[in-house]
Amino acid sequence: MLDGTYLKLGGDLHRIESQTGYWAASEETRLSSVLNGEFVGVWEDSDGKTWIDATHYFTDLEQALKFARAHNQMAIWDNLNAAEIDTRETVSIRAGVDL
Fold first, then answer.
1. Alpha-carbon span 70 to 73, nearest angstrom
2. For residues 26 and 54, is the Cβ–Cβ distance under 8 A?
3. 80 backbone dihedrals φ, ψ, rounded to 5°
4. Across-strand partners of 52?
5. Which H or E element spans position 68?
6. Higher model confidence: residue 38 or residue 1?
7. CA–CA separation, 28 and 24 (whole Å)
8. I need a labelling partner for 6 at 20 to 30 A (CA). Which of 17, 41, 79, 89 fits?
9. Model confidence over 3-13: pLDDT tens digits?
C-alpha cells in the first residue's frame, strides 16, 4: 500500500488525492478497524515502520493544528504543498498571527 490517505467505501480502501486542506491524525489504528466512510492515513517513517492512523480532513490550518496537538500528533499533512507541518513549531499563517 502506498503512503497516502484512503477512504473506506463498500469495504474497499480508495486513495484520496487532495490539493487543498490538511490531514490530521487522531490515533493509530489497524486497517481492519476502519469503518465505511472513515479516512485512514498510511505512511512509512524513516526507520521503515508503517503507520496507520485514523485521519481527519480540515480546510483551516489553525483547526488542523489544534486538533493534532490535542491528540499528541507530531505533524499534520499540508495537501497544497505536499509537505508535513511540525505541530511542535510555531507556524505563521499571516502577518501577526502565529500558531
1. 8
2. yes
3. -60, -45
4. 42
5. helix 61-70
6. 38
7. 12
8. 89
9. 999 999 999 99
Cell numbers at residue 3, please? Answer: 503512503
Residue labelled with grid coordinates 469495504? 11
Q: Is 65 helix (H, G, I), strand (E, B) or coil?
A: helix
In the DSSP assignment, the letter for residue 80 is: T
User: Are 38 and 8 spatial neighbours (Cβ–Cβ below 8 Å)?
Assistant: yes
For residue 37, the 8-state DSSP code is T
**Is the CB of residue 28 less than 8 Å from the CB of residue 36?**
no
Enter the C-alpha cell of residue 19. Answer: 490539493
Please count the CA atoms within 13 angstroms of the CA of 45 that sit on its side-chain side: 8
Kindly state the cell numbers that stand for 73.
500528533
Any idea where the domains of the chain sit in the sequence?
A: 4-98
